[in-house]
Every structure is written in structure tokens, then in C-alpha cells.
Write a structure and sequence with these properties.
The protein has twelve helices and no strands. The protein is mainly alpha-helical. Helix 1 runs antiparallel to helix 2 and helix 2 runs antiparallel to helix 3.
């Protein structure tokens, strides 16, 4: 009986120690994953500030760090989404052997991220962008666009996606424009109102050479929105 009591007392002392060791290991593992992620985040911010002019060495470092982060914390949607972003950029920069294969891999990581966090609009927008890069204008792309629009009604990244895509479809007279036309026009207006997307939106309007057409499309918008478009004047009769 005394022996059993000793065993129980010993176990009551050992069990918490084992638990603390396990928790410390988990904390160290996730903490290390967090450090890897922030290392990647810093590199990504440098790329964005420098106009996406990353070096192959920077890309390899970022890819290695985000891979470690995902391996250590495989159910973190932010890490998984970042993995997709890094692969996408590497493919476009020519640092991967096969651009299309790498874009598909990136799309796979974005899909995993949406399964874990389905309301992230920028991830849906990223998948739509990859479909565009692959020239896959199909129902899957339309679904990604609708999800981005649904979950990111005021998201600047979604404004820019629809503005850029809409003008590209218009330029090439692509039939998909008919499917997204209303959203396209709405995102132009939202892009003009948002200071962070105004310049990019105006740049697209100017480069397209169809400012007068956009002006007519947006005739029901308030004057303060229309005034951002050079030479855009809509009479009261046209608004009615």
C-alpha cells in the first residue's frame, strides 16, 4: 500500500513536469514558426517597397523560411497563404523551373488557406489572379471573383483586381466582361473613392483611353467621385 502511495506521489510530480516540457516544446515550435514567418514578411515588404525587384537569393531565403513555418504550424492559414504568395512571385520572377506548375502549386496553397479561413477576400482574389495568369476564364474563376467580392466589399486589393481585370477584358473584347460588368463598374467607383487605390484606378482609366465611356457608366455616381476622372462631366439630364 505504501509502495502504491509512493508511486502515485511520484506520478503527481512527474506528470506536471512532462506537461510543462511538452508545452515548452510546442511553444518553441510555434515561436520558431512565427520567427520564420516574420522573416518572410520583412522580405515581402522590401519587395513591395522596391517594386517587386527581389533577387533569386532573397526568393530562396523567403521560400525556405515560409516552408519551415508551414511545416512547424501546418494549420495556420496565414502561413499557408504566404507560401502561396511566395511561390506565385517566384514563378513570375522566373526563379522556378516551370511558371505554370509553380502557379498551380501556389493556387493549391491558397485553396488550403481558404478551407481554413474561408472569409479572407484577398486569398480568393489571389486565386482569381492566378486563373487570369493561366488564362483560365471559366466558372471556377467566376466563383473566386464572386467570393472575393462577397467577403471584401471595401477591400482595396479586391478593388484593384476587378479594375485591372475589367480593363484587360474590355481591351480584348472578352465575353467574361459581361458577367462581371456591374461589379467592375462598382469597383471603379470604389477604387476612385479610396485614397489608397485612387492613383492605380485613374492610371487604368487613362491607359485604357475610354475615360468618357467610364464617365457614362458611372453617371449615377456622386459628382465628387466623377470629378476624379479628367474631363468627366455628367449633366443633370443624363443623371435622371
Amino acid at each position: 500500500m505504501a509502495l502504491n502511495t509512493q508511486v502515485i506521489k511520484k506520478w503527481l510530480w512527474v506528470a506536471p513536469c512532462l506537461l510543462l516540457i511538452w508545452l515548452a516544446f510546442i511553444s518553441l515550435k510555434y515561436g520558431s514558426a512565427s520567427l520564420d514567418y516574420y522573416r518572410v514578411k520583412n522580405i515581402v515588404e522590401e519587395w513591395q517597397n522596391e517594386g517587386n525587384q527581389q533577387t533569386k537569393r532573397q526568393y530562396a531565403s523567403a521560400k525556405s523560411a515560409v516552408t519551415r513555418a508551414v511545416n512547424k504550424h501546418p494549420f495556420n492559414p496565414l502561413y499557408i497563404d504566404t507560401m502561396g504568395q511566395i511561390l506565385e512571385w517566384g514563378a513570375l520572377a522566373g526563379y522556378e523551373d516551370n511558371e505554370n506548375v509553380s502557379l498551380m502549386e501556389a493556387k493549391g496553397f491558397y485553396q488550403q488557406a481558404t478551407h481554413l479561413r474561408p472569409t479572407w477576400p484577398v486569398t480568393w482574389a489571389s486565386m482569381a489572379m492566378i486563373k487570369w495568369r493561366l488564362q483560365e476564364f471559366d466558372t471556377e474563376m467566376q466563383f473566386y471573383l464572386s467570393q472575393a467580392d462577397k467577403y471584401g466589399p471595401m477591400k482595396p486589393e479586391v478593388h484593384i483586381l476587378f479594375v485591372n481585370l475589367g480593363f484587360a477584358l474590355y481591351k480584348h473584347n472578352h465575353p467574361m466582361l459581361l458577367d462581371i460588368r456591374q461589379t467592375f463598374m462598382n469597383r471603379i467607383a470604389l477604387g476612385l473613392r479610396n485614397p489608397s487605390t485612387r492613383f492605380a484606378t485613374l492610371q487604368q482609366i487613362q491607359q485604357s483611353g475610354v475615360g468618357s465611356l467610364i464617365c457614362r457608366w458611372l453617371k449615377d455616381e456622386p459628382d465628387e467621385t466623377l470629378n476624379f476622372i479628367k474631363g468627366c462631366r455628367v449633366s443633370a439630364a443624363e443623371k435622371s
